[in-house]
């Protein structure tokens, strides 16, 4: 009879543990699984009650998931646990002294009850604590009981850990979806192709360091109502900018500035006035975000080859003069967009000649780190530009060669730390204008 009784008890215990394992495999709802834990624990050990106190990822008591087997004062105990202030602080589960304080708090509430407790540990982190108790006297305890409770604790810790990982995966998936949407929107904001402008060859590329970046370049006709050859011969705004920062916030701010800029271009004002007005329009939005924008704005007239420009602290474009085989920087005084409400901007101009090459770029190019931790820098960019121009390459070939040099410098197994954008404008060699053109301009 004794052997039969022991056999029945073992089968019952096995069925309880199997049911808990099945629940762990089958339940997608953590709350439903945790509801079973005190019931299984108390029946497995043959005690009056069991209490499960899980912890959140930051170590606080997970009050919504506390579970207890029913007895007269069970709900009162849960209310007292929720009011246990130390357990509501971040990092509570990482300090043994605080866990011992919770043990004493529960022992004090249950008065003369016999209690055994152990932690729920997964991947070296305490994910909760389980208590089994007899309300009216000491526990009848054995090594088998301890192993059973530890097994339940391990399974429960695994369930909590899996749920936390699943939540993290879902958060990452949401962020990935947002990044994909943001990247798609930004890709639509950048020109799909370079426009046809009479007498010049254009090429451009943006390579974001993150899926969404803060670099921006654009080609905007100052008279969009013109079509065909009249638009090609009309004046165009050529600009490049960079929001300080990376990722979605920088991309969203640049999206806002793009709309403002396109509206300003239609005003027909010179570059310095456009930057002045843009700075005032964007002041409030940029001050709230604690970000600033660098921007180089120019307009080009194909009929006279005159390029007017103003600069809001952006990297000055590089101009290769074909006649003299030298590179000069195009710069003008001006503060960052968003820095000072009444900032003033200088305006300069230059006449481009056949074979001249103008290179616009962002600091993600010159600040790119190499294998030896040095930077690509402007001097290296100038040498690369000179080499490409001396070989008589077209705009796209110059652009491709510059990125090849940049990738070789950074290394095949390393990514850029910042968005890198380059725009190349080359005046066609075959173009010849009357010598009176400049005087008429």
Q: What is the strand and helix layout of this fold?
A:
Layout lengths: L1 H25 L3 H16 L3 E6 L12 E2 L5 H9 L13 H15 L3 E9 L2 E10 L8 H47 L10 E8 L7 E7 L6 H6 L2 E8 L3 H19 L5 H19 L3 E9 L4 E7 L5 E4 L4 E4 L18 E4 L5 E5 L1 H4 L10 H14 L4 H16 L9 E8 L9 H4 L1
Antiparallel strand pairs: 1-2, 1-4, 3-4, 5-14, 6-7, 7-8, 8-9, 9-12, 10-11, 10-13, 13-14
Fold and architecture overview:
Residues 431-441 have low confidence and may be disordered. With 441 residues, this protein is an alpha+beta fold. It has a five-stranded antiparallel beta sheet. The termini are far apart. The chain folds into two domains: 2-170, 2-Layer Sandwich (Beta-Lactamase), CATH 3.30.450.40; 190-440, Phosphatase 2c, domain 1. Helix content is 44%, strand content 21%.
Keywords:
441 residues, alpha+beta, Beta-Lactamase, Phosphatase 2c, domain 1, 2 domains, five-stranded antiparallel beta sheet, 12 helices, 14 strands, 21% strand, disordered C terminus
Oligomeric composition of the shown chains: single chain
Low-confidence stretches: 431-441
Strand segment tally? 14
Q: Any guess at the CATH architecture of the largest domain?
A: 4-Layer Sandwich
Kindly report the spatial arrangement of strands forming the biggest sheet. 5-14-13-10-11
Strand content: 15-25%
Q: What number of structural domains do the residues give?
A: 2
Counting DSSP H or I runs of 4 or more residues, the number of helices is: 12
SS-based class: alpha+beta
Distance between the termini: 115 Å
Radius of gyration: 35 Å
């Amino acid at each position: 009879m004794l052997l039969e009784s022991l056999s029945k008890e073992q089968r019952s215990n096995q069925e309880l543990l199997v049911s808990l394992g099945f629940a762990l495999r089958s339940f997608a709802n953590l709350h439903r699984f945790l509801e079973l834990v005190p019931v299984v624990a108390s029946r497995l050990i043959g005690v009056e009650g069991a209490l499960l106190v899980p912890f959140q990822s930051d170590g606080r008591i997970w009050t919504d998931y506390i579970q207890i087997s029913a007895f007269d004062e069970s709900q009162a105990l849960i209310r007292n646990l929720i009011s246990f202030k130390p357990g509501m602080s971040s990092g509570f589960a990482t300090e043994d002294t605080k866990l011992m304080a919770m043990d004493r708090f529960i022992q004090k509430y249950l008065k003369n009850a016999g209690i055994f407790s152990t932690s729920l540990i997964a991947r070296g982190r305490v994910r909760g604590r389980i208590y089994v108790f007899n309300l009216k006297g000491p526990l009848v305890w054995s090594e088998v009981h301890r192993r059973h409770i530890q097994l339940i604790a391990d399974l429960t810790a695994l369930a909590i850990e899996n749920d936390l990982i699943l939540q993290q995966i879902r958060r990452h998936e949401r962020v990935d979806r947002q990044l994909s949407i943001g990247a798609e929107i930004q890709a639509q904001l950048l020109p799909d192709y370079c426009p046809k402008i009479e007498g010049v060859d254009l090429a451009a590329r943006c390579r974001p360091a993150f899926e969404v970046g803060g670099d921006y370049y654009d080609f905007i006709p100052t008279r969009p109502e013109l079509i065909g050859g009249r638009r090609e011969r009309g004046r165009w705004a050529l600009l490049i900018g960079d929001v300080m920062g990376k990722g979605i916030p920088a991309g969203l701010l640049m999206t806002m500035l793009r709309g403002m800029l396109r509206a300003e271009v239609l005003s027909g004002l010179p570059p310095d006035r456009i930057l002045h007005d843009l700075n005032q329009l964007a002041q409030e939005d940029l001050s709230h975000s604690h970000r600033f924008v660098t921007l180089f704005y120019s307009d080009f007239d194909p009929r006279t080859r005159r390029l007017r420009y103003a600069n809001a602290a952006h990297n000055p474009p590089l101009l290769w003069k074909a006649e003299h085989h030298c590179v000069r920087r195009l710069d003008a005084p001006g503060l960052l967009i968003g820095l000072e409400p009444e900032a003033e901007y200088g305006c300069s101009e230059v006449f481009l000649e056949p074979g001249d090459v103008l290179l616009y770029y962002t600091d993600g190019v010159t600040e790119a780190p190499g294998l030896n931790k040095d930077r690509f820098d402007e001097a290296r960019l100038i040498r690369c530009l000179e080499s490409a121009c001396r070989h008589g390459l077209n705009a796209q070939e110059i652009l491709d060669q510059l990125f090849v040099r940049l990738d070789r410098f950074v290394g095949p197994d390393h990514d850029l730390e910042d968005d890198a954008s380059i725009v190349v404008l080359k005046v066609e060699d075959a173009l010849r204008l009357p010598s009176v053109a400049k005087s008429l301009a």
